[in-house]
Structure of EF-hand domain-containing protein:
Amino acid sequence: QCCLNVCEFYRDGIHIISSSSVLRCKELYPYKVCSTMLCYVDYYNFFFFFIKQDTGLHYDRYLREVIDFLEKDQHFREKLHNTDMEDIKMGKLAKELDFVSHHVRTQLDELKRQEVSRLRTLIKAKQDIEGGNDIAVDHQALLKQFEYLNHMNPHTFEVEDLDRLIKSATSDLENYDKERHEEFKKYEMTKEHERREHLKTLDDEGRKKEEEHYEEMKKKHADHPKVNHPGSQNQFKEVWEEADGLDPEDFDPKTFFNLHDSNGDGFFDEQELEALFTKELEKIYDPTNEEDDMVEMEEERLRMREHVMNEVDTNKDRLVSLEEFLVATKKKEFLEPDSWETLEQNQAYTDEEMLEFEEHLAQQEEDLNQRASDLQKQRDELERQQEQLNAQKVELQQVLWEVVGKHHIFTVM
Ligand SMILES: [Ca+2]
Ligand SMILES: [Ca+2]
């Protein structure tokens, strides 16, 4: 029901997902829609240092606490608002740390000490689980894996720490979409693999029936009303008319922007953009249909958002400003767009990738079987040794009895 809930959320026109509801969903269906959604919450606001919710990064809490403290410093806050995105990425902002008040610096030092200690505990716990108790723990070497702070100096928070934190968070968030695509590809290949395995268990007639059903469902899924090009006039006009209940004759880009900038900050962020595609996605996906996969729907939503961001976000700050939006509405792509190629028109993976994936699975299975057979052999060997020991014990006892018996006879004599 979780996917449905999230969709309802969008339908209600509430574009900000509360982290508690996402967390609730995440517990129910960790793989599906919701883990993605969680990562989306307040994604871009990182750059404006107003992170109030989870970024999904494993060092999220540290990141937010650092930012909260820095925001308390007036000098830093002012610099923050006057430094542009490129300069922040280049590390100019981090240098301003030198001018931050002593009080804030002391608090940052303490935060860093806590974080280093948290990482050490994590590493220790991981090693305990892996059973490496007797191996001397090289914390320094292991801490190197965590690039968002300078592990060589675990005591004070310096310019380098802020620089690393900004760079790590930026690149981790930028790679987020890439990872999401990879995850989706794996999902599709697993689905195909399971289908093929199921076919193997059927007799000829059953297999034929199943294949026919599969093709029929595929056709049924592909049969849907025309999907508008995301971010085009036609697409937005449909939202304007059907979701906003306004007259298409009155369509006005600026009003549209303000209507759908749900948090009123003057920008379209990821969630606000994604919410605009619900109408299109409903043309293709219906959660009650067997042939419509809601995981695929979320991938399509992501593709649409990525596409529009690429076209419209010219300064690449991952937000669409009103200005960028209005410029885009003058372009040919907005007024006379190409048709949109939906997800099902292209297979998510190549035949080679599928082959490689299946080989990998087969290899894994073989390794498991090998290990099981090794274990069985070890068990047999242990049993054999046990039997041998038992036989020796019996023999020994016999000898002992004989000796004791003779002794007994001797003493009686
Ligand atoms: Ca906004
Ligand atoms: Ca922008």
